[in-house]
Specification:
This protein is α/β, with parallel strands linked by helices and about 240 residues long. Helices cover about 45% and strands about 10% of the residues. The chain has nine helices and four strands, in the order αβαβαβαβααααα. Strands 2-1-3-4 form a four-stranded parallel sheet, with helices on both faces. Helix 3 packs across helix 4 and helix 6 crosses helix 9. The protein is globular and about 55 Å long. The structure holds nickel (II) ion. The site of nickel (II) ion has 5 residues, from helix 2.
């Protein structure tokens, strides 16, 4: 259930039967010619809601304003600084812990969130928090490899776009119909966690916004399968976090 769609009395009743909460984190940034600006947030949110249904978990409002400085040369991107994001996470953790939540599961959809999320979580008892990307699980990764192999790439990935096609809308590929420049394994290693350069340089290097990802391979059918696999895997991992009390 979504926290923003229940009353305080329902939240109080929930806390009598569970101390867990899922908090989705995404971004507001360009995702190539056919990817929605909210792709990361929409993916994290829909996977979290699916997991919440399976695991009877409360799902907090999605954090969509996060650090994405490297995409600021593309219209529509809204980036906040890492220190601000980290401070926001700390205050949210303090707030939910004050109400009695003691197992907080961050479901992430944006690589650049990982380091500040981890720094914030490290200020609290380790057993209270867990941070996962929706694509971290073997069942999800197997589908990504099966559908896209190396064309999954790094940004505006066909898997994330497939999920938003299943849940929101499909944009015709336009200039993204052709494959992007293929990235070397070395480039992918060096830029993991969205460690990209300054905005102008990033846009010059990747003019249409895709970073090694062949977005046009996405289909809504893939998206439904990825969503189901991710929601099931997250529900299991969340149950594991609750069991670890
Ligand atoms: Ni993304």
């Amino acid at each position: 259930m979504r926290l923003d769609q229940i009353t305080w009395q329902e939240a109080e009743a929930y806390l009598k039967r569970s101390r867990g909460i899922i908090l989705p984190t995404g971004s507001t940034e360009q995702h190539g010619p056919m990817g929605l600006i909210g792709t990361d947030a929409l993916c994290a949110q829909t996977v979290a809601e699916g997991a919440g249904e399976i695991a009877d978990a409360c799902v907090a409002p999605t954090l969509a304003y996060t650090p994405a400085p490297f995409n600021m040369a593309f219209p529509g991107t809204i980036s906040i600084s890492e220190p601000l994001f980290e401070a926001l996470i700390c205050e949210i953790l303090e707030a939910v812990i004050s109400h009695g939540f003691d197992r907080i599961y961050f479901l992430n959809g944006h690589g650049a969130n990982l380091a500040p999320l981890q720094r914030a979580a490290d200020k609290f008892e380790p057993a209270k928090t867990r941070i996962r990307n929706w694509w971290d699980f073997p069942a999800v990764d197997a589908l990504r490899r099966q559908y896209y192999d190396d064309w999954e790439g790094m940004h505006a990935t066909p898997s994330e776009i497939a999920i938003t096609q299943a849940t929101h809308r499909t944009v015709s590929p336009g200039i993204a119909a052709a494959p992007p420049e293929k990235l070397s394994p070395e480039y992918i290693r060096q830029h993991a966690g969205d460690r990209h350069g300054p905005p102008d340089q990033h846009r010059r290097r990747f003019p249409d916004g895709r970073v090694g990802s062949h977005s046009a391979l996405a289909t809504p059918e893939h998206g439904s399968a990825l969503l189901e696999a991710a929601a099931t895997a997250v529900a299991g991992d969340y149950a594991d976090l609750l069991g670890g009390r």
